[in-house]
Amino acid sequence: MTFTPEPPFTHGQPAKAASATAVLYCNLGTPDAPTAAALRPYLAQFLSDHRVIEIPKAVWWFILHGIILRVRPKKSAAKYASIWTAEGSPLKVWTAAQAAALDTTLAARGHQVAVRYAMRYGNPSIASQLDALKAEGATRILVLPAYPQYSGTSTASVFDAVYSWAAKVRRIPELRFVNNYHDHPGYIAALAARVRAHWAAHGRADKLVMSFHGVPERTLHLGDPYHCECHKTGRLLAEQLGLTKEQYVVTFQSRFGKAKWLEPYTEPTLVALAQSGTHSVDVMCPGFTGDCLETLEEISMEAREAFIHAGGKSFSYIACLNNSPEWLEALGDIAGQHLSGWPTQAAPDAQALAASRAAALALGARQ
Ligand SMILES: C=CC1=C(C)c2cc3[nH]c(cc4nc(cc5[nH]c(cc1n2)c(C)c5CCC(=O)O)C(CCC(=O)O)=C4C)c(C)c3C=C
Ligand SMILES: [Fe+2]
Ligand SMILES: [Fe+2]
């Protein structure tokens, strides 16, 4: 095992000292292009993560490489192509915009904190961004996942990536991790503002459907708090909006494989609603901080079609938090609260550090 060389003593340093305190905003990741060639390595990395697929590795390897990676890249690429923008994948565009906004918000509040974003799968990787922050002089790093609800399949996997980077580093920065913010008042208020703005512009549907990403049901029985946190988000949002239990429903989307996932499933729920006489629905995805494949394609395209096909009359998709001012403020609050107690001033100048170390070594040599 070799440890990475330590800046500032063994490498050239940036001329300008950066902040000693940093935030790494981490999201799931996305392919580099909407093509099967780009999907294959992305899906291979994603679906080889034991946090995501808890099947014995030897068995899963054959299923993944023998079946899934031969079929899914092409199918998924077509879906990505339908939502791709001139700037790239929506997930990356929103993640980058939120990280930049967080940098601005924290600076406006008087914190000198470097903010970078990283992806758990694909680029830029968590390890590359931690390397970059360390090279810039960061000695304290707050790891902030873009997931409001904690799940072993998503949040813990981000933490794993940070730990495995740290395991190769000689001088590890102080690290803090944000587990969740599913009930943070700013997050709930930002969601509520999104819904109210939609209602003001388009009117209110018969039912508000809150669709969260699904996970295998067994994770709930094994103690994962994800299901409970999604329901708490849903209840707090409904309270803010003054909705009764009959006026909203929490559902789970994006099922993968044959196992039972958290129920009720989003699309069958929408079909059942249409068939039982619910004419109009507003559908939102509160667990996704930015729009992505799962919201723009699976919900706003596929689920819409299923609802209308089943006899529904009006399907409104309410966009994710994205760059809404309420959300960007809340993100600043969440980061600010977790940075509390850490100094947020500039790092000592790297050259000054190197000079003081050289002086200390010279002094030691004389004694
Ligand atoms: C295979 C099992 C999966 C689990 C468990 C899972 C959990 C999970 N995922 C997100 C957030 C996102 N997932 C996204 C895409 C996506 N998810 C899976 C599978 C699982 N996710 C796959 C295979 C894919 C890729 C697309 C596909 O081929 O279907 C995305 C969108 C990424 C994008 O590029 O836009 C997000 C976001 C969470 C929060 C979560 C657990 C709570
Ligand atoms: Fe997913
Ligand atoms: Fe999906």
Task: Tell me what the structure shows.
With 367 residues, the protein is an alpha/beta fold. The protein folds into two domains: 21-34 and 84-180 and 327-349, Rossmann fold; 185-317, Rossmann fold, CATH 3.40.50. It is built from 13 helices and eight strands. A four-stranded parallel sheet has the order 2-1-3-4, with helices on both faces. Strand 3 (140-145), helix 5 (155-166) and strand 4 (174-177) form a beta-alpha-beta unit. The protein is globular, with a radius of gyration of 23 Å. The structure holds the ligand C=CC1=C(C)c2cc3[nH]c(cc4nc(cc5[nH]c(cc1n2)c(C)c5CCC(=O)O)C(CCC(=O)O)=C4C)c(C)c3C=C and fe (ii) ion (2 copies). One fe (ii) ion binds at residues 254, 294, 298.
Briefly note the CATH topology name of the largest domain.
Rossmann fold
CATH architecture of the largest domain: 3-Layer(aba) Sandwich
Distance between the termini: 34 Å
* Number of E-state strands: 8
Strand content: 5-15%
Radius of gyration: 23 Å
3D shape: globular
Mean of all residue-level pLDDT scores: 92
Class by SSE composition: alpha/beta
- Level-1 CATH class name of the largest domain: Alpha Beta
Bound molecules: the ligand C=CC1=C(C)c2cc3[nH]c(cc4nc(cc5[nH]c(cc1n2)c(C)c5CCC(=O)O)C(CCC(=O)O)=C4C)c(C)c3C=C, fe (ii) ion
DSSP helical segment count: 13
The residue fraction in helices comes out at 40-55%
Order of neighbouring strands in the sheet with most strands? 2-1-3-4
Main sheet makeup:
4 strands, parallel
Function: Catalyzes the ferrous insertion into protoporphyrin IX.
Organism: Polaromonas eurypsychrophila
Keywords: Cytoplasm, Heme biosynthesis, Iron, Lyase, Metal-binding, Porphyrin biosynthesis
Subcellular location: Cytoplasm
